[in-house]
Design brief:
7-stranded antiparallel sheet, mainly beta, 8% helix, 51% strand, single chain, 26 strands, globular, 3 helices
């Protein structure tokens, strides 16, 4: 069983554009080894937006060297990028954008959602790419609800929706560049859960709502993340209330991480090249 390494959160709120009030739960500056291949996590919400005709979100900006994974728990987000990808994702859905060699994109609230307003909750992850894939061609994957398998946990403990990776015989729809699991779990109060996680893989549980209790005695509440050691091949926990939990685990990418703003590469020279390529229009533009 994987042992708890630490429990972590961040209560500082900042706005990304005018549509996403987020807390940066972790970044590669603190946890590059403990949470690889995951580089960063922003948590927006839960909050509520009033109806508006205004276009709320964040405008054109670049990325290179990693993937952005946006999970919508409430609300709608519309995406458009210079690689030709884009679309609308709704509650329960995920957009998985591979920036790779470089892409410029924008993210706004869905037009219909803006007109009516309502609850909003979102997680955005940055997922690292191995050095050999950092300059891969940009790609966009829309993981819609009809594509995401849902599996019941044993003993009535709840259900797991697979965005990426494998649970039993089922696989999530996301195509990834390194082995990882990204699961949306809905847990039932008063139950226990045991999950198989490969030996040597990183593992973390982020609680969006509710409370889970770990075998070591600690409890993990709303907007807190439990980070585990790589040793061991399972995770075990109990739910003292109904809970909504995001599981992240994966094979660590054991390579240098050098980041600057929207670019994450392996060397400072590659960062300088990324800045130059963006400034000279080589990552494209939105029209």
């Amino acid at each position: 069983m994987k042992k708890l390494k630490q429990i972590h959160t961040n209560k500082e709120l900042h706005w990304v554009g005018d549509g996403f009030p987020v807390r940066n739960i972790f970044s590669y500056n603190e946890f590059s080894k403990e949470l690889s291949p995951f580089l960063m996590m922003d948590y927006a919400g839960p909050t509520r937006f009033s109806a508006t005709e205004k276009k709320l979100g964040v405008g054109e900006h670049p990325h290179r060297g990693f993937e952005t994974v946006t999970i919508i728990y409430d609300g709608e987000v519309e995406h458009r990028d210079s690689g030709g990808g884009g679309g609308l994702i709704r509650k329960g859905e995920v957009q998985w954008m591979t920036a790779g060699s470089g892409v410029v994109h924008e993210e706004y609230h869905g037009h219909q959602y803006s007109k009516t307003g309502g609850p909003f909750e979102m997680v955005q992850l940055w997922v690292n790419l191995p050095q050999k894939d950092k300059m891969t061609k940009p790609r966009y994957q829309a993981l819609t609800n009809d594509l995401i398998p849902e599996i019941s946990l044993p003993n009535g403990a709840g259900a797991v929706r697979l965005f990426a990776g494998q649970y039993g015989s089922k696989r999530g729809p996301a195509q990834t560049f390194s082995p990882m699991n990204l699961w949306d779990m809905r847990l039932v109060a008063g139950t226990k859960t045991s999950l198989e996680i490969p030996e040597g893989h990183t593992a973390a549980l982020f609680v969006l709502s509710g409370t889970i209790n770990l075998p070591s005695g600690e409890k993990v509440d709303d907007a807190y993340m439990a980070i585990f050691e790589k040793e061991g091949d399972s995770l075990e926990f109990a739910s003292s209330s109904d809970a909504k939990v995001l599981l992240m685990s994966g094979q660590a990418i054991d390579e240098p991480v050098v980041g600057y703003g929207p670019f994450v590469m392996n060397t400072k020279a590659e960062i300088s090249q990324a800045i130059e390529d963006y400034q000279t229009g080589k990552m494209g533009h939105l029209h």
